[in-house]
Amino acid sequence: MKFAISNIVRIFANDIRDMEKKKDYTVTQEQLARFAKALGHPARIAIMHFLAKQKTCYFGDIHEELPIAKATVSQHLKELKDAGLIQGEVETPKVKYCINRENWQLARELFKEFFGQCICKSGECC
């Protein structure tokens, strides 16, 4: 039993050392992943598409524009807001939503840079 415990402690210590050796992600990588996660559901894409077509902030009920339940829309709006892609403000009895133009531009630049980094543009890649 004592041998098994010492082996577990040794393995655990090695795992911790390995984790310490790993590099952290860059701020850019973390931000790009956050935007990608927020856009990783078709309902959120539909919400962003809808809001992008609005000339001003939207004061209506977004759930009326989409084929999903009101509670589901709320969850998706929260995810988009947490990622910084939209802004929401309560103006009783409704909430107004807008695309966060600054973060929208940042997302556009990060995705453009990310997708443009492939060095094999001539079709010679695997």
UniProtKB/TrEMBL annotation:
NCBIfam families from the UniProt entry: HTH_metalloreg
Lineage of source species: Bacteria, Pseudomonadati, Bacteroidota, Bacteroidia, Bacteroidales
SUPFAM superfamilies, per database record: Winged helix' DNA-binding domain (SSF46785)
Domain of life according to the entry: Bacteria
Transcription as UniProt keyword: yes
Record-annotated membrane-spanning stretches: none
SMART domains: HTH_ARSR
Entry keyword annotation includes Transcription: yes
Stored Pfam families: HTH_5
GO molecular function list: DNA binding; DNA-binding transcription factor activity
Domain HTH arsR-type: 24-122
Name of the protein in its database record: DNA-binding transcriptional regulator, ArsR family
Keyword line: DNA-binding, Transcription, Transcription regulation
